[in-house]
Design goal:
The protein has helices at 3-21, 92-102; strands at 38-40, 45-46, 49-53, 57-62, 71-72, 112-116, 121-126, 136-142. Strands 2-1-4-6 form a four-stranded mixed sheet, with no helix packed on it. Strands 3-8-7-5 form a four-stranded mixed sheet, with no helix packed on it. Helix content is 21%, strand content 25%. β1 (38-40) and β2 (45-46) form a beta hairpin. The protein has a single domain (24-142), classed as Cupredoxins -  blue copper proteins (Immunoglobulin-like, Sandwich), CATH 2.60.40.420. 27% of the residues are buried. The protein is α/β, with parallel strands linked by helices and 144 residues long. It binds copper (II) ion (CU).
């Protein structure tokens, strides 16, 4: 029996198992492993760019240890689109003020935030405490 062939075979099985674990569900808001679309690490969103169709819900999960926010750039979402931010703020200014006041809008480690996108276009967003470190992301919403 060729040992190299055996190893290659087991590596393939492991890869398949991993891809099964990381499959996402945009409709599941629980914080279980793998049940999110965009993870949040020390100072990044991953993936930084994510594409969905109109009417779909995107789930962010704090997969790291620090507090983060998901906060839309008010001037960088499509015309007519609903503003969104963790904490439920209705404007970027309110979200920034809330964070400065008492860390409102924070997403603790292991928690999720979700938003349903109803208007096609590009949505730029950021994490308030880590914006200086470049923690920004983009959701692209396409017509079906
Ligand atoms: Cu952050």
């Amino acid at each position: 029996m060729d040992r190299r062939t055996f190893l290659a075979g087991s590596a393939t099985v492991a890869a398949v198992g991993l891809s099964g674990c990381t499959s996402f569900s945009g409709e599941n808001a629980s914080a279980g492993q793998g049940e999110y679309d965009i993870g949040m690490g020390s100072a990044f969103f991953r993936p930084a760019e994510f594409e969905v169709s109109v009417g779909e819900t995107v789930v962010w999960a704090n997969t790291g240890n620090r507090r983060h926010t998901v906060t839309a750039y008010e001037g960088q979402i499509p015309d007519g689109a609903e503003y969104f931010a963790s904490g439920g703020f209705e404007s970027e200014e309110a979200a920034r003020d809330g964070w400065m006041g008492n860390f409102e809008g924070r997403i603790e480690a292991g928690r999720t935030y979700e938003h349903t996108f109803e208007v096609p276009g590009e949505y730029h967003y950021f994490c308030i405490p880590h914006e200086p470190s470049g923690m920004v992301g983009k959701v692209v919403v396409t017509e079906e």
